[in-house]
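Q: I'm building a small set of examples for a reading group on sequence design. Run inverse folding on the following structure and report the sequence directly after it, with nothing in between.
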């Protein structure tokens, strides 16, 4: 068979449980994004409450935007790993995995809506726990 005709023959069907090779899933971006949310809340908390300057108001807007963008990154990254990487045997090993993901998504949403240091700390901790579970499945 010539090279040209080999391109025309039907492709072999393959099946995978992931959109991409499993070796490149990594919760690190979600961890960095959760840390960024917490840091932006911290910076917002340091701004003057009374008589803020124009620069302070601009910083508030920037920090709020970054906080919300990174909370959305958390949601995106966690959802991808949860939906594409984790398999039934992982859920058997960690039966509360779905609840943990639900909690992270709700915490990320809360952090988008509010400026709350406690919620930011909870998000950071929940993402860390998720990452620990992820890495335990790689052993």
């Amino acid at each position: 068979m010539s090279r040209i005709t080999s391109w025309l023959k039907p492709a072999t069907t393959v099946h995978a449980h992931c959109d991409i090779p499993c070796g490149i899933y990594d919760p690190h971006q979600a961890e960095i994004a959760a840390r960024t949310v917490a840091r932006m809340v911290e910076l917002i908390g340091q701004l003057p409450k009374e008589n803020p300057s124009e620069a302070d108001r601009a910083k508030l807007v920037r920090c709020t935007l970054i906080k919300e963008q990174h909370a959305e990154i958390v949601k995106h990254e966690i959802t991808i790993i949860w939906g594409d990487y984790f398999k039934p045997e992982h859920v058997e090993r960690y039966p509360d995995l779905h609840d943990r993901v639900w909690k992270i998504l709700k915490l990320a949403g809360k952090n988008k809506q509010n400026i709350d240091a406690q919620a930011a700390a909870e998000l950071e901790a929940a993402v860390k726990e998720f990452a620990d579970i992820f890495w335990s499945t790689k052993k």
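Residues 54-85 form the longest helix (32 residues).
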